[in-house]
Amino acid sequence: MRRAFFSAGFLLSTLGIFVTCTVLASQPVTAADLLNIYRAAVDSDPVYSAARASWTAAQEKLPQGRAGLLPQATLSASTQHSNRDLTFRDPALTGSRAQFNSNSASVSVTQPIYRQQNFVAYEQGKTQVALADAQLATAAQDLILRVAQAYFDVLLASDNVAFVQAQKTAIGQQLEQAKRNFEVGNATITDTHEAQARFDLVTSQEIAARNDLEVKNRALEQLIGRSAPGLAALGRSFAPLPPTPASMEQWVEQARTVGLPVRIARENLTFFSQDVKRNRGAHHPTLDAFASVTESGSGSGIQGGSGTETGSKVIGLQLAIPLYQGGIVNSRVREAVANEDKARQDLENALRSAELAARQGYLGVTSGIAQVRALEAALVSSQSSLDSTRLGQEVGVRTQVDVLNAQQQLFSARRDLAQARYNYILSSLRLTAATGQLSETDLQRVNSWLEK
User: Which residue in 143, 133, 359, 353 sits closest to 261, CA to CA?
Assistant: First the structure.
């Protein structure tokens, strides 16, 4: 009876220590949740900030392309001072010296009427803006995934520290029990050595777990630009759901149709196809309308003479037909065609990669649900196995080694279950990202599973 009471007390003590360690490791008094971390990363992450700056720069491609279709106006003016010495070769004639100014001002306007290259450059500007939009959306999705990965990496590392600490405490109590039993002659020294070996091993695992937690915290700090706060842990409201729609092929089709990598590859192909047209346009004639107004005045420069004032107004058309430019146009066309072919192959690769990503994400979600459920059942079974093994040790049919093995199995099941839950969450986010639909709304859904 006394032995049974000791076993029950020991079990309650172990479970209490485990719960306490878990709470201390993953439930700080003021815990930041996933949305808090994401919003901090939006403001501080240099990768996303660089993407936004690149997008802002790309918006200027449209007015730059439009400029080639609009009039070009130039104002020019000049002034000059002249000293003129006039000397005759006939000594009988007297030379002269004069000083005078010459001034000129002109306004000219040129309006392109037909320039094939300029028309295509304007369309390329539109394509580059659309490409920048897709690239910024990709950077936003990538930030969400990086934040979620860093967040749950920290939670898993915290869980591992708590699990190892709880395991170390439980083994330490087994070690003390083995020493007492050896002293009174109820056990051999082998049990003590086995428990000591397990205790030393779990001590080294604790050091590694703490180091891993430190590294994961530093990775999170890199995103938010400040010290990593305490994080809200996954709570009891966590409820893994199957993908909607429930067909893998529908997810694959969405990824191939509207996935951001595919969208970027399509815009790239469009841009390089337009580049072929733009370079071929260098063979085309150009037609411009032009107009200019000039006013000029000059002193006489002849003694006793009178200066002049001149005004002119000109309007006309200018046609230019390129004949030969050293072969550079043909070379640029060949280069553009090769780039277009590369972009076409990049699009094919993007389509295949999108299909693979959608399938991996879908299988990650569906298998993740099954794995979570299986590990939840395994955790219950492992706890029952440990209870039975302890009881067997008390009645003499189980050894100290059996108890230590059962403890190890229980803590492994807890660790694996925590990792499976986090993997499911990340897989669901990656699946949504594969179709280009990942947004802060998806983080809000995940955030609702965290303990506030």
Answer: 353
Range of 296's domain? 71-114+285-321
Angle between helix axes 400-434 and 189-224 (nearest 10 degrees) is: 20
The most confident of 86-90, 180-184, 302-306, by mean pLDDT: 180-184
**126 CB-near residues (< 8 Å, 6+ apart):** 62, 65
Same domain as 62, residue 161: yes
Beta strands in 230-360 (DSSP E): 286-298, 308-320
Q: How many folded domains does the chain comprise?
A: 2
Between 98-102, 127-131, 217-221, the lowest mean confidence (pLDDT) is in 98-102
Most confident option among 186-195, 377-386, 387-396: 377-386
Instruction: Determine the pLDDT at residue 447.
Output: 95
Separation between Cα atoms, residue 413 and residue 380, nearest integer Å: 9
The predicted pLDDT at position 302 comes to: 58
- Whole-angstrom CA distances from 237 to 55, 91, 240, 449 are 39, 116, 10, 5
Prediction pTM value: 0.83
